[in-house]
Structures are given as structure tokens and as C-alpha cells.
Amino acid sequence: MATGTTSTAQHILDNLGGPDNITSLTHCATRLRFQVADPTQVDKSALETDPKVLGVMTQGTHGMQVIMGGGVAEYYNAINRLDGMGEERSSSTKAASSSKEYGGVRGRFGWVDYCFEFLSDTFRPVLWALLGASLIITSLVLLDTFGVQDFRAPLEEQPATFQFLHAMWRSVFYFLPIFVGATAARKLGANEWVGAAIPAALFTPEFMGMKETAEVHPTAVEGVNTYVQHVFGLPMVIQDYGGQVFPPIFAAILLFFLEKLLKKIIPSAVQMVFVPFISLLIMIPLTAFVVGPFGIGIGNGITHILSAINGFSPFVLAIVIPLLYPFLVPLGLHWPLNAIMIININTLGYDFIQGPMGAWNFACFGVVTGVLIRSAMERNRPMANVATGGMLAGLLGGISEPSLYGILLRFRMSYARLLPGCVVGGIIMGLFDVKAYAFVFTSLLTIPAMDPWGGYTLGIAAAFFTSMILVLVFDYRTKAERDEVRAKLAAEREAANQAEDDRVEAAAAATAGGAAAAGTAPVARALESGAVTEVPAPLEGRAVELNEVPDEAFASGALGGGVAIDPTGDTVVAPADATVLAVQKTGHAVGLRLDNGIDLLIHVGVDTVKMNGEGFETHVEKKQKVKAGDPLITFDRSAIEAAGYSPLTMVLVSNTKKFASVTPRPADHVGTGVPVISVAAKQEANV
């Protein structure tokens, strides 16, 4: 039996065009990242119908990002276990995939799109280790806060236990160039292990040992020297590459082109031996002499520019940073700033970006918390689930993607609630000149890593509550979006409540009459195996297909199959004997359960909930028994049209999924009692 995760995985794969349309699949902290051969085979609207899918975004021409939240790894594994995926990929897909090993940049990407995709996918696989290391740092900073051990004390002066604890997080940041060398090479299509080996050579005791006999040249910065050793008769700068990210990135780019050239020259039979051999022979010296110093220079240059802005006005920078992030993160443009943060820590001993960045994160989490509260008040369970996941991932993990893709990018008004929180938080960060002394993910757990942590706490609290209060007061949706959601939720609740009441009553009746019926209740005709039931029209007019209705929810059949009637009369009557399940307070809709087991929703007009009952009069109430022909609703068509709404009246079988088919019967004119829908029951297998 398929699990919920497997069902969702199959749903995603089907709506991306199937296994043959997938050329690659990876994932990050919250997103499944696909490359597809034919983008026209992707059905984004269908993908988003699964509540587990928080959003779908395109990246470049052939890239698709499916937002899944914190459980993304489970869906990634589930997709790879499906037929045609993983080890069972079709031969055509295998060929496309294997060609990427040395295939590099494809022409199908715009160069700008690919540059940012390259940066994003280079850092993405390392995210897990960085997050774990950042929480170890936070634990050590907390111990510093409580006076247990000075976090910034020289390592040799700390007890052995704390030296080991520092080694646990330094392993990630110090050897980050090796990780980045591997992931960058893999993204480009070069050999990832060669990509890792190139920067690894610069961490060996042999390389660092040359510093002991090198020439020492003082720099413009007091206390900072340059160490130069002569290798092959040429000057080589010996420096610490721990935590540097630009040198391995540039080295991976050059490696890609070198491997591509070598594969054209070297026979395929011996490429496995000589391509990596010659690559290492060329790239390690090239990196040590040129690429490494150049990469460090680029990183330091960007750092110095931002430092200059920060030195000129930390206040201005603290406001600009949180205002940029809401637009950078959706495009993946925030990764270069993350690299700069790490460089800042390594060169300056602190970073001035992370603190202000926290204002954006907590404004974002404030928005989703406001959405959660509003959803709870509305009893909107699907949105409450999305908001809960986004809030917890943010407050505890510092990850904003579930909030961003699950809510902020889906409702345009949410940015109007987000940005004021960013400004307020940024102002406070600027007043306190907040700095970070370790690279961490900005969550509640990492507050002690900021200095002054009290000013930082005040800043993120102001950002959080500003955005949350704005959502609670002004909502996160437009008025039309809010009214539509509330109307649908009300109708669903009424129908669900009545259905439950009817089940209880039916069970009681069956129990009371059990002796006569051998303990079983009679089965309604519409639900009997193979039965076909006709549903009469509840009002006069022209019957048309639902796809003519100017509302996507009705036209798509999402609310049930059926028919729409362009009315010529002004009264909706019961099409058959029934029980009233729900009556909208605005009088524009009524839900019925016919005695034959069919549930109907009769909805007069499109968006007529906004008329607040004007032009409508109801003649029944919930739980009332009605006979065929009894009046249900009287309406004024001219009032509907004067208000700017369509008078088309939807007659929907709301329990469509219980039946084999629900078929409309369009006609130029139908009267009450004339069949307009045919309902076929499912055919049960013989036992």
C-alpha cells in the first residue's frame, strides 16, 4: 500500500512529465531541484494541487524547483525509488545524465541564470554540515555567556575538552574549500574528486610547512605579513586557505575546461588514468601560484567594499541588507553574500551582514506566525499546516524558504507586511551596530552568537512583531482572496458537519431497524453498483459545461463535477427529495443531500458572496427536509449583473469522487425537473 510520501512523490513525477523527462534531480534544505528535458510537459498547476507541495518555481529554461519544506529528503528518496528513477532510469535518461559528467554548462541556460544556479547548487549540498556546525558554535557561545569558558580565548589556552569541541565546528569551516571544490566541479560536470583534491593540496602539512622558511613581507595592515616561497624558481605566496570559497570555485571552473580539452586529446581507453593525472599536475600549481591568491583577492575586495560602506554608515547598511534579502533569496542570489560572511569571519574576526540579515528572517517568520494565527481563527487547516512548518523551520533552524515559497510568494499583499518589519528591525540593528562573531543560521537558537546580543534580540523581536501585527490587522491577502477562501471554508465546514450528523442518524436508524434488515441499512440507489442516476435541473435556463464558468475553481471541477445554468427564472427549487446540508448566510448558495445519496452544491452566480445577501432570499434552513420542487432560493438576476457578477448558477455533485462518472447534459433550455447531470455509480467487483 502506497504511503502519503510515495503518493506525493508519484504525483510530482507524473506532473513533471515522467522519468524520461527528468535529466537530473537534487535537493536542498527545502526544495527538490529538477532539470527537465521538455519544460512544456510540466504541469505546474497540477503539481500545486497536492497540499504537501508548498510551491513550484522555474529556474532558467529547464530548471524546476518544487518546494517541500523540511521533509524534502524523504520525498527525494521516495522519488528515486519510483519506477524509472534511481538505478532503473530509462536508457535515454541514463545517457542524458551520464553525459553531464564532463558536459558542463549547457547552451539551454541563460548565462546569468546559470551563474546563480551554479553558486546555489555549489553551496546547497554543504548546507547540512554548515547548519550542524552553526548550532555547535551556538552551544559554545552559550557556555561563554554563562561564564563557563571564553569562546574567543586562544585555542591553546582552552581546556582539552573545549579544544575538541572547537575542532568539531572548525572541521566544516576550515575545510570548506575542499567541500566547495567538489560540489562546484560536480555542478559544472568536471570530476568532483579531482575538484576536491586541488584545494586539499593547499591544506597539507607539506604546503603549510613551506611557510617556515619563506620570505616575510609586511603588508599595509599592521601585524599581517605575506609569506613568499620560491618554487620552480617562481614566487609562490603561502597563505592559509581555511574557510576560503572563491579559490576552489575558480579552480573548478578552470578544471572543467581543462578536462574538456584533455578528453578531446587523450584516447577514451586511457582517459580514466591520464585525465585526472594531468589535471592535478596542472591545476594544483596553477591554483597555488595564481588562482588561490586571485580568489582570495576577489573575496577580500568585496569584503573591503562592504566594510567601507559599513564604516561609512553601519546604520544605512543595516537597513539595506534586510530589504535586499526578500528579493535575493527567491532568485538564489543570496549565496554570494553567505560566502562574504564566511570571509568576513576569517579576515576581520566578525561579520556585519548576518545581524541585519536577521531582521529579514524574523520579519518573514513574523508574517507566517500571523498567517498561522489567522488560519487558526478561520479554521483553515491547510494554510495553518503550511504556516506551522514555515514558522518552526524559521524560528528553530533559521531557514526561510518554506515561509517564502509557501506563503510570501503566493500572496502578493504579504510583502507589504514583510518589508516594514525589515525596516524596523534594520533600524534597530543599525543603532546597536550588531555584529556576528561566528557564521550561524539566524534563528532563536543562535542569538548568543551576535554582539550585542541584547540589541540583536530587540531588533529581531521588533521585526517579528511588526510584521505579525500587520498581518493580524490588515491580513496577508487581498479582500477578494480572503472572501473567497472564507466562503469556501464555510461551505466545506457546513457540508462536513451535516455529513457527520447524517452518518450518526443513519447509524442510529440502522440499529433500530436491524431485525427487519438483518442488521444492515438499505443502500441508496445512486450508490448501488453500476447504477446511473439522473439529477434534474433546480432552475430554468440554458445548461452549459463548467468550463464556460469564469472562475477557475468551478471551471476546473475542483469543487465537483456538474453543470452550470444561465438562469431565465428567479427561483432555485429542490431537484429531488433531500435534506438541506448548508445554507449560506448571504443566501447565494445551498448544499443538499438527495435521498438517493448524491450531495449537491447549488451556487447562484460567480463571486456573489461579495453582495452580502443583497438580491437573495432563502426559504429553507439547515437540516430541513425538502420535497422535489420546494423553493430554496429566490434571487434577482438584474441585481447580480448590476453588481458586475456573472449570474451563471453552478449545480455541482460535491461528492463526485464517490462515483465512477459525473456527466453534464448541456441544453439550450431546461426547465425544473429536466435531467441535466448523469451520475454513474462505481462498478463493484463480484465477490
Automatic annotation (TrEMBL):
Task: Pinpoint the PTS EIIC type-1 domain residues.
Answer: 117-490
Q: How does it sit in the membrane?
A: Multi-pass membrane protein
- Cite a single GO BP annotation: phosphoenolpyruvate-dependent sugar phosphotransferase system
Active site positions: C28
Which spans are transmembrane here?
126-146, 167-185, 274-296, 302-328, 359-377, 418-441, 453-474
**Subcellular locations according to the entry:** Cell membrane
Q: What one GO molecular function would you report for this record?
A: protein-N(PI)-phosphohistidine-sugar phosphotransferase activity
The record ties this protein, via Pfam families, to: PTS_EIIA_1, PTS_EIIB, PTS_EIIC
Q: Which InterPro entries match?
A: Dup_hybrid_motif (IPR011055), Glu_permease_IIB (IPR036878), PTrfase_EIIB_Cys (IPR018113), PTS_EIIA_1_perm (IPR001127), PTS_EIIC (IPR003352), PTS_EIIC_1 (IPR013013), PTS_IIB_1 (IPR001996), PTS_Sugar-Specific_Components (IPR050558)
Q: Which NCBIfam families does the UniProt record give?
A: PTBA (TIGR00830)
PANTHER family named in the record: PHOSPHOTRANSFERASE SYSTEM TRANSPORT PROTEIN, PTS SYSTEM ARBUTIN-, CELLOBIOSE-, AND SALICIN-SPECIFIC EIIBC COMPONENT-RELATED
- Name of this protein: PTS beta-glucoside transporter subunit EIIBCA
